[in-house]
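User: Hey, quick favor. My workstation is busy. Could you predict this chain's structure for me?
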Amino acid sequence: MSVETGERHKTIFLVEDNKADIRLIQEALKNSSVPYQVVTVRDGIDAMAYLRQEGEYADAARPDLILLDLNLPKKDGREVLAEIKADPLLKRIPVVVLTTSKNEDDIFHSYDLHVNCYITKSRNLNQLFQIVKSIEDFWLSTVTLPSE
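Assistant: No problem, here it is.
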């Protein structure tokens, strides 16, 4: 909990395999006014293990927000999204697909699986920072998130 605000730290769960994108997203969040921690995994199998608190993730914090790339090794982000939204214990966690894919089938399929929003990553550094800042402002400051 933050002493000044009485708020607990938010947990952002970043599921991303690209090291450069991980670094850029973390950098974009660095000046956040919201107390948070970013937890990162780099494939879909680890993502589901973390969310289900299995194995090495037995003590994992429940995320307040999931940032999910679609193109992941081991288990595709589309499969991860389907599993999250089909699981009664996980389905209320907001999922933001943050991916390079502009494929309409990916967009339609993600919304069919009840993604909360779909955002295409920009390769322009300033635009990517602006995108991440808007995600932070909306999902961590404006929206009321479920506690469990």
